[in-house]
């Protein structure tokens, strides 16, 4: 039997070329979409988990809060426990600072004021400061001993154990509204 090969005409070739190029574009766009949608936060960066350290690395209870500018939070240590306060004012998003003379956070843009634990005092801010979730882990086993409550607030430190303190800057708790 003679080999019957059918020649492809120009129209069929252009249709195949068009479909192949569409396939390559679709695969490329789908791959870029998947890569863009996947979070790539690393430990120690804003948006990821930041290891503060042990109890020794905390500021004293009567000391000013510790500033962590790279990961955008203030670590406040009070008698009730520790809190990681997001460094952005709840009014219009300015970066507020700790005022040592007055013993409170003051926003330089519009004058909102907050206590050391992030509670609203006065000014145009609609709510108290936002905070990040803190986990207190056992230094030896890695077991979670305490975590920030869902509604926010300080995390008490265990007295009798060596601990590691981690702050998840990807988990923000919105501050309570005031009247």
Task: For the record, give the distance between the C-alpha atoms at the N and C termini, rounded to a whole number.
Answer: 93 Å
Shape: elongated
Helix tally equals 1
Task: Indicate the CATH architecture of the largest domain.
Answer: 3-layer Sandwich
Q: Structural class, please?
A: alpha+beta
> How many strands?
11
What are the low-pLDDT stretches, counting only 5+ consecutive residues below 50?
Answer: none
CATH class of the largest domain: Mainly Beta
Question: Which helices and strands, and how do they pair?
Answer:
Blueprint: H1 10-37, E1 49-53, E2 66-68, E3 73-77, E4 82-86, E5 97-99, E6 104-106, E7 113-114, E8 120-122, E9 131-138, E10 144-147, E11 163-173
Antiparallel strand pairs: 1-11, 2-3, 3-4, 4-9, 5-6, 6-7, 7-8, 9-10, 9-11
Descriptive labels:
four-stranded antiparallel β-sheet, alpha+beta, 179 residues, Rieske Iron-sulfur Protein
Overview of this protein structure:
This protein is an alpha+beta fold. The protein folds into 2 domains: 32 residues; 125 residues, 3-layer Sandwich (Rieske Iron-sulfur Protein), CATH 2.102.10.10. 16% of the residues lie in helices and 29% in strands. The strands form 2 sheets. Strands 1, 2, 3, 4, 9, 10 and 11 form a 7-stranded antiparallel beta sheet that branches. A hairpin with a 5-residue loop joins strand 9 and strand 10. It is elongated, with a radius of gyration of 27 Å. The termini are far apart. The relative contact order is 0.16. The mean pLDDT is 85.
